[in-house]
Design goal:
By secondary structure, the chain is an all-alpha fold. It has 10 helices and no strands. 72% of the residues lie in helices and 0% in strands. α4 runs parallel beside α7 (123-148), α5 packs across α10 (195-211) and α8 runs antiparallel to α10. The radius of gyration is 19 Å and the shape is globular.
């Protein structure tokens, strides 16, 4: 909790936004999205809601910034880990899956991006987000292009396929305790395996198909 001090310079405004994002990220690590509001974020910061509204009109604007930040961290680690591509297929797929597993907090944001986060932001803000996304993904699309021997437009399609699969697969292997208890009560078998192995299989299939 921090005392609110009005930001005057661009640097101070950026510091305030980082504090807001940290508070929202901490709340999202502990609670489902529907339990988080501008009020709970302000309370976490020790601010009034009116002070929080000076920096973000909706909580979705905050979560859009968090998605971008975490997406960039994932992409930067992928680019570094796969810099020597083309690599043996098994090595490429395993590395992609392990990096994604280490950046799992990003997958929670990606899982609600289209259905929730993008639903309550301005067209101008969303367009800026899309432009930023297109720019930050280019280095990893280039990695896929080298790995598969394909053009970067085709590589981007492969990347999107890998991106969209990851959140659902992560959720499949990381149930809440309540869900686990419900599955046991329903007589359903426990989930076998782990995210990294299952995702590596999917990555390998996609890369192999694109390289044909």
């Amino acid at each position: 909790m921090s005392e609110y001090i009005r930001a005057r310079s661009p640097e101070q405004k950026q510091e305030r936004m980082q504090a807001i994002m940290q508070a929202a990220d901490e709340l999202f690590a502990q609670h489902p999205y529907h339990q988080i509001t501008m009020g709970t974020i302000a309370e976490r910061l020790g601010w009034s809601r009116s002070n929080l509204y000076k920096y973000a009109a909706t909580q979705e604007e905050i979560f859009l910034e968090l998605h971008s930040e975490k997406n960039r961290a994932w992409l930067d680690e992928l680019e570094e880990a796969l810099a020597d591509a083309p690599l043996p297929l098994e090595q490429f797929a395993r590395t992609w899956a392990e990096v994604t597993g280490r950046q799992a907090s990003f997958l929670r944001y990606q899982g609600i991006l289209v259905s929730i986060i993008e639903s309550n932001v301005t067209l101008e803000r969303l367009a800026a987000f899309k432009r930023s996304f297109a720019e930050m993904v280019q280095p990893v699309a280039a990695v896929i292009a080298r790995q598969c021997g394909i053009g970067e437009d085709a590589a981007l399609e492969v990347y999107l396929r890998l991106l969209y699969q990851a959140p659902g697969l992560w959720d499949h292997f990381h149930f809440t305790e309540t869900t686990k208890e419900a599955m046991r009560a329903a007589g359903l078998p426990e989930t076998r395996g782990n995210f990294e192995d299952a995702y590596a299989d999917f990555v390998r299939m996609c890369i192999e198909d694109a390289a044909r």
